[in-house]
Amino acid sequence: MREPLPADMFDELCPSSLNPIRFGDKWAGLVIRCLEGGPRRFSELRVPLSRVTPKVLTRSLRSLERDGLIKRTVYAEATPHVEYELTPTGRSMLEPMAIACTWAEQHWDEMLDARESYDNAASLDQAG
Amino acid sequence: MREPLPADMFDELCPSSLNPIRFGDKWAGLVIRCLEGGPRRFSELRVPLSRVTPKVLTRSLRSLERDGLIKRTVYAEATPHVEYELTPTGRSMLEPMAIACTWAEQHWDEMLDARESYDNAASLDQAG
DNA sequence: CTGTATCCACACTGATACTG
DNA sequence: CAGTATCAGTGTGGATACAG
Question: Which InterPro entries does the UniProt record give (chains A, B) (predicted)?
Answer without folding.
Answer: HTH_HxlR, WH-like_DNA-bd_sf, WH_DNA-bd_sf
